[in-house]
Amino acid sequence: MTKPVRRRVVLLGGVAAGLSTALGTTTATATASVRTAARAAGFATRQAGPFEIIALLDAHGPFFLPLRESFGAATDEVWARAERVDPGAFGPDGAWNLDFRCFAVRLPLGGVALVDAGVGPASSPAKSWAPVPGVLLDRLAEAGIARDDVRLVVLTHLHEDHFGWSVSPDGVPYFPNARYVVQRTEIEALERAGDDVVLSYVVEPLRRTGQLDAVDGEVCLGRARGGAVSTLPTPGHTPGHQSVLVHGSDSRVVITGDVLVHAVQLVEPEVSYRFEADEVVARRTRLALLDDTRRRPTWLATAHLTRPFVRADEGGC
Ligand SMILES: [Zn+2]
């Protein structure tokens, strides 16, 4: 597991108030009622301590490169194991069919943390390659989550298919009550690279409204009796990539972002993805995360597999 650069607690805005209120006062009734609402609406969910994690599918479609051009090093035996884990990702003629998924983490006494913001509307920056428009806003409504209820938006990284619904094309944040949590190293890497698309589309509008929270390393986003939610630096796919760890006393969910983008990287974490910014660091991160999560019961909540939740030890030899 990647070591934290610096640990601090950010109980932000409404989340701070909500979780402070929740500490020591969470009731079984409150937790059960929100769990029932999401499941009754047909959403895949998992529970980690007092937190409910809800999978929200924004879009689905084929990738612009075939599988074997996206993950060059996998053997036939590895591909066969991957297909047993996630058969839905294998399309005709070697195509890679992938989901574009976000997750909502329900806080025990109200409020939601949204992890990733999907491909976005029809005119979003992801339109050149991803299946836009996404349907995240509709899915949130169907799950009973109002945009005003979202207190945190954690962006695992600043790729187009992960920030699409964070800010509108005319620069207005979709979640007016949210703090947007991004690793500072992710922003600094874009600034060093002279990026003129992502920074102007998503970072500058959030700076203007005062909603951007650039964080360093592992950060506790909130605690409640029996569990906590925190960021987990997982660099490699991008320089400042982060995952989100939600844990209870005997259960954990890691919302992985793009640490692994296909089941082939779950069954064989040495396999690199063609578009990783630093494949050596990405491989080291993936090996460390999967090694850690295989030591104790953990669900991986994935952005791009066609199964929202998988066990870290699925598909082994
Ligand atoms: Zn992605």
UniProtKB/TrEMBL annotation:
It comes from the Bacteria. InterPro entries: MBL_superfamily_lactonases (IPR051013), Metallo-B-lactamas (IPR001279), RibonucZ/Hydroxyglut_hydro (IPR036866), TAT_signal (IPR006311). Keywords: Hydrolase, Metal-binding, Signal, Zinc. SUPFAM superfamilies: Metallo-hydrolase/oxidoreductase (SSF56281). It holds the Pfam family Lactamase_B. Residues 99-304 form the Metallo-beta-lactamase domain. PROSITE patterns: TAT. One of its GO terms (molecular function) is metal ion binding. Gene3D superfamilies: Ribonuclease Z/Hydroxyacylglutathione hydrolase-like (3.60.15.10). This is Zn-dependent hydrolase, glyoxylase. It comes from Saccharomonospora xinjiangensis XJ-54.
